[in-house]
Amino acid sequence: MSKILQKLGILFHNRTSKLLKDKLLQELAGRNKNSRFYSFGSHRIKVTVVGAAGKVGQPLCLMLKQSPLIEELCVHDIAPTGGFALELNHVDTNCKVTAFAGKDNLANALQDSKVVVLLASAPDADTMSPDKMWYQNSQIVLEVMNVFAKISPKAFLAVGTNPINSIVPMCAEALKKVGSFNPSTLFGITSIDTVRANTFVAQCQGVEPECVMVPVIGGHSEETMVPVLSQAKPCADFSNNELENLTLNIRKAQDNILKIKPGEAAPLSTAFATARFVISLVKGIKGYPEIVECAYVPSKVKQEFIQGVNSCRDRR
Does any domain span residue 279? Predict the structure, then answer.
C-alpha cells in the first residue's frame, strides 16, 4: 500500500491540489483491499453516443472523453465522424475514441456497448412544432431502436431525443415487441431540468449551486415537469411567491433561451447535464454508492393518481 501511495504522490506532483490528493488517498485506503489495485468494480465501460456530431453531441463527447471512468467512447452519426473522433483522441486522457458513420455502421457502433446515449434527431428539431418534431424524430429513433434491439438489447439506454415524454415510451414498446424490454435500463434524460432548478434555487437562496439538489419529476415538458421544491437540499424554506416564481422559471427556461437564441436552444447546458447523467450511470454500473439522478423512466403509477394530478392542474 505504501508503494501505491508513494507513486500517487509523484503522479499528483504539480498537477493536483493537496486537497484533491488527500481525498483520493482516503478513498483508496477505504476501498475493499481484497480487490486488485483497490479499485471499484472491474467493468470495462464502452459508451456509444448516437447522434454525436450534433450541437449537443459534440460538447457532450468532449466532456465524456475527460472521464476516467469510461474506457471507450464510440461516436456515431449520419454525418462523417472521423475527423471529430481524431480531434477528440488528441485530448490527453486514457479514454479511447472510436468512430462510425452512416446507417450501415450503426450495428458496429453499438457492438459491446454498456451504455448507449441516443441523441439522434432531425436537423433544427428544436425549432419545429411539437407535432412535426415528434413525427420526424420518431422515424429516426425507430430505425435506431431496430438495430439496438438486435445488437445491444442489454445495454443501458439513455434517451436525449425530444420530445422525451413521447420518445421514451416508444422505445419501450419497440423493445417489448422483440422481448428485450427491461424497465431498469431505459432512461429519459431530464437532467437539464434539475441543473436549471439547482441554479435558480441557489440564486434565490444565495448559496453555491454545487451544494443544491432539487428533484424534478414528471418528464421533460413545460406542462408535465414538477420541480419538487419541498425536497430541495440543503434548504427548502421558500415563500409562496418564491415557489411560484421558481416553478415558472424552471418550466419556462427553454422558451426563454429560444427567445434570445432563436433556433439554437441550449446545446451547451444540455450537454453538461447529459454528461453528468451519463457519468452517474457509469458510476452506478461500476458500483459507486449513493449515486442519485432524476430521469424519465417507466413506472407503475396508478391511473387514479394520474387523474388526481390532472384535476389539481385543471383547478389552478
Answer: no
Could you please report the per-residue DSSP string of 191-204? HHHHHHHHHHHHHH
**Degrees (nearest 5) of the Cα angle 20, 26, 27?**
90
- The CA radius of gyration of the chain, in Å to the nearest whole number, is 21
- pTM of the full structure: 0.82
Q: Which residues pair with 197 in a beta bridge?
A: none
Mean pLDDT of 117-142: 90
Q: Quick check: is 103 in a domain?
A: yes
Check: CB of residue 49 under 8 Å from CB of residue 57.
Answer: yes
3-state helix, strand, coil in the chain (%, to 5): 55, 10, 35
CB 140 within 8 A of CB 161: yes
Instruction: Provide the grid cell at 130.
Output: 411539437
- Residues in contact with 210: Cβ distance below 8 Å, sequence separation at least 6, in sequence order: none
Q: How far apart are CA 284 and CA 291, in angstroms?
A: 6
pLDDT above 50 (res 12): no
Q: What is the CATH number of the domain that holds 109?
A: 3.40.50.720
Number of domains forming the structure of the chain? 1
Active-site residue numbers?
220
